[in-house]
Amino acid sequence: MTEQTVVPGTGTVEGRPDAAVVRDALGVGVAVGLSGFAFGVTSAGSGLTLLQTCALSLLVFTGASQFALVGALAAGGNPFTAAAGAFFLGVRNAFYGLRLSQLLALPRAVRPFAAQWVIDETTAVALAQPTRRSVRIGFTVTGLTLYLLWNLTTLLGALGAEAVGDTDAWGLDAAGPAVFLALLAPMLKTTTERAVAALAVLLGLGLLPVLPAGVPVLVAALAALAVLWAEGRRRGGAQCGAQDNNTQGSGQEGER
């Protein structure tokens, strides 16, 4: 079945087969879902039990927050500090939900269940679709595939870590941060985004030796405010300079 939608400003009709939406959604779900192996290994290596590890994937289901939580706990951080860091990373999903609620327009009874799948990947697939039907298909297929595969690979990763024993000896403790960076890097497309990421890295690494585990992650979040403030100052200065040039030009024209 092909879905059609009018392209704004052109008057032409663009078709998007449902099969193409499903294919794209499955590709994202499978590719990211396999990262659950890394989380299962990292969580088990951090000292969490198999039940705790699987519960995190079932109930939290947002990779960045899960990795941040177990990473802070592995470093000896306070559980409340670790949870706070994970919470702030997950806040972005609430903003995704505001946009997706308009696009999906789901019945009220379904919304609490759909909210569990509001993450980076489902949002990206949904926003890439031209019509409500394809948005719903993309969101549902991505969410279902990713949720099932993420939880399955979390279980297998945790079981594998227990069989391996000391994950530090195998270097598996680096799997979580490596996967997180691999997911983050392609999203940094503008100069401002790269500047925020670079400053956050500097703050996190620089404060790591002097602050309790988990706190550097919270402080690193201030990088966004610092870069946005500097960007606003720069734009304000550029606008003032342009206005001064226009004023001088007008004065010279008046003298002529």
How is this structure best described in words?
The chain is mainly alpha-helical. A hairpin with a 6-residue loop joins strand 1 and strand 2. Helices cover 75% and strands 4% of the residues. The N terminus is likely disordered. It has a two-stranded antiparallel ribbon with strand order 1-2. Helix 1 runs parallel beside helix 9 and helix 6 runs parallel beside helix 8.
**Spatial strand order of the main sheet:** 1-2
* Strand content range: under 5%
**E-strand count:** 2
The amount of helix comes to: over 70%
Number of continuous helical runs: 14
The general outline is flat
Which stretches are low in confidence, meaning pLDDT under 50 for 5 or more residues running? Answer: 2-13
- The radius of gyration over CA amounts to 23 Å
* N-to-C span: 70 Å
Query: Main sheet, how many strands, which sense, barrel?
Result: 2 strands, antiparallel
**What is the helix/strand order?**
EEHHHHHHHHHHHHHH
Overall pLDDT, averaged? 81
| Class based on secondary structure composition and strand pairing | mainly alpha
